């Protein structure tokens, strides 16, 4: 009898913890703020569990006061929570991927796409400048308190999309909001890369004029060296302005709560 009583007391807590941790785990799996740090295995699970603990008592009480959940319904909710967590994680990854896109544009413009680094988060190669921009933004993200915004967005999602419901009812303008998000990625990437890209374009024009005046020179090899030199010098100068620009946009880009409220303003 004591064993059955203990099981009745512990089971709701275990179910609530499993349901709550699934969404956070899905977000951690794809969010660059976690994957870029190399969190894996026990460490990743520990972070997810630590973020789940404040939610567990509230969810346990909600499950005890609500209708009983069948095993099939619990399985469906777990799948829904995982997909929803991955979607929220993709939203948090937008600023980092925008910075990587800016770095890819710069490396493409200076003809250095062959040089790449292994990205442990995606098990794929990433250009050198893209990696530099992503790490710089992550550094500012944690230094400026961006982790608090990330956790706030995760916890807000539980108010907007309760765990016990099978899914949110999206607003009619959800598709337009997603397109606006993609537009924000391109805008941020282009603004970040534009100053150096313009300088590299002028370098190309100078190399074209040099090719007309001195056709005996190997302009192709010379242009690669010249653009790399211009890029290196400008990046040192631009870094101070770039970091300040990133700092100003961190709170706006990583604050996902307003976007989540617009995406799902009503519940099923």
From TrEMBL:
Q: Which GO terms describe its biological process?
A: protein targeting
| Any one GO cellular component localisation term in the record | plasma membrane
Q: Which InterPro entries match?
A: T3SS_IM_R, T3SS_SpaR/YscT
Q: Which UniProt keywords apply?
A: Cell membrane, Membrane, Transmembrane, Transmembrane helix
Q: Where are the transmembrane segments?
A: 36-60, 72-98, 128-151, 188-210, 222-243
Compartments where located: Cell membrane
Q: Which PANTHER family match?
A: FLAGELLAR BIOSYNTHETIC PROTEIN FLIR (PTHR30065), SURFACE PRESENTATION OF ANTIGENS PROTEIN SPAR (PTHR30065:SF1)
Which protein is depicted? Type III secretion protein T
Family classification: Belongs to the FliR/MopE/SpaR family.
* Superkingdom to which the source organism belongs: Bacteria
Q: How does it sit in the membrane?
A: Multi-pass membrane protein
In terms of one coarse class, where is the protein primarily found? membrane
